[in-house]
Write a structure and sequence with these properties.
Elements (H helix, E strand, L loop, with lengths): L1 H23 L11 E8 L4 E9 H5 L5 E6 L1 H8 L10 E8 L9 E2 L2 E2 L3 E6 L19 H21 L4 E5 L3 H8 L9 E2 L3 E2 L3 E3 L6 E3 L2 E3 L1 E8 L17 E8 L4 E6 L5 H21 L1
Antiparallel strand pairs: 1-2, 1-4, 2-8, 3-16, 4-7, 4-11, 5-6, 7-14, 9-10, 12-13, 14-15, 15-16
Length: 290
Amino acid sequence: MKNKSKIFILAATVAAAMSASPAQAQNLSFDKDAGDIVLYALKFGGSQTLVLNIGTGQSFRDAGSSLFNIKNIGTELAAISGQANWWEDGNLYWGIAGVRSSSTGTTAQLFGDPSRTLYLSKERTAIGTVGLASSVNFADPGNTNMTTAANNIIGQNNRLETIGTTDRLLESTGSSVVDNANSNPFLGSNPGTAFSVFPGGVIGNFGVGAFGTLDGVNAEGALDLYRILAANTASGQEPGPLRTGSYEGSFVIDQSGDVSFIAVPEPSSAVLFGSAALLGGFIRRRKSVA
């Protein structure tokens, strides 16, 4: 009887483990629910697409200083481009998109981001200045379109979670991620409409000649990152304009394939001290006049 009981317990344990396996099979290197955002790269007319988790949206939103060499994708970009000097391939594009939830609730937030908070990129049109956007901001798409965009981004990014096993996935043309990409941020008629919502897309391309130097990085390409709120009434959320982008910083990539994030600098203590001194002097002068 004891042996039969042991066999029964063992069988039950195996069955429980097997029933739990689908949840455990999800990619532990990507977590949409935590706010991870994704970098995509593909070549129009090419045969492969890169899908890469670059970190949580709020980590870039809250970055007080630049984050260098976050990821390296030089090998993947060379494979997609078909040439070693991929940075001169004008048909090679990259873009960034992420959202935590498509829920239409307006009171809940996680890490300061309410549901349907989008993180999207826009091509930087000039090297510009650290801390300032060099792209055209997103226009208000309307509340319904925020839900549409959130659902489309989730449908695309989930490919990394359900198929991938690491922080990146390189898939062949014809797979659903490429099909989704071609109908969303990487629409064939470039620049296209991103996620059926944003005219002009969310992508930028490379090309002959260096783009410029930003915060010490010799960039071959640069994307501005925007945070777009669908709601701004959730208790404890990080503030921002409603349904239009707030500039959070810029992603740049160099010839080695290193991806870096150039943050909006925090005000220095000297500037803050100077502002306080000016304010104090103004108050004292007002008192003297009184």
